[in-house]
Amino acid sequence: MHILDNPIWLSLTTRQAHLAEGDDLARRYPPEVTALAAVKDHGAAAFAALARITQGDVAALFCYKPVSIPSDWKTIHTSNLVQMVCEPPHPESDSGMAIAELSAADSSEMVALTKLTNPGPFGTRTQELGLYLGIHQQGRLAAMAGERQKLPGYTEVSAVCTHPDFQGRGYARILISAVLQNIIERGEIPFLHVREDNVGAIRVYEKLGFKTRAIFPFFVLRHEQGKAQAK
Description:
It contains 5 helices and 11 strands. By secondary structure, it is an alpha+beta fold. The chain has 2 domains: 7-80 and 216-223, 3-Layer(aba) Sandwich (Aminopeptidase), CATH 3.40.630.30; 84-214, 3-Layer(aba) Sandwich (Aminopeptidase). It is globular. The chain starts with 6 loop residues before the first helix and ends in an 8-residue tail after the last strand.
């Protein structure tokens, strides 16, 4: 397996192990950080371990190959994610735009923006995962982008979103470029995940130097307590 085949698991067992809840079969981030979770493999024992740690909370999983979800799990959402990798060097972008580093003080605005734009799982503590940058306009958070999963040699670009009132101004591209610059300066390789049907975003990422590496099934699941598991 490639290191990026099971990125959530690798993140929660290496560079972000300090945030992990779980054991040697299944792990998750604290729910306030993100709903992302991972199983070491797709076996029944791993899903049983995931059920023990989620205890009815939703779990968002990237699956590195087709998987049969056990019958005691309810599928709330499923789609395909394109995993893209940006190999350095990346051209620097000097837009002259004022970019702010976001912190816990900006959490409510960040959560509100993600609820409006739905870039993926985002919680009140997601900004703890890495650097988050934003552009403010008219006293509001107009756009943001940041870092999420971190595993040896790689950092994920995530939460790329723009308020509908400020779309079409290139803010997302400016912020992605700034995030990429920080990742590459640390000697790491940026990667990201985007829904397969989001062709507009994929084109933007390709112009920024990202190339498709793989397509993963993505599931948002909830364990149904008391329901017998499929054999």
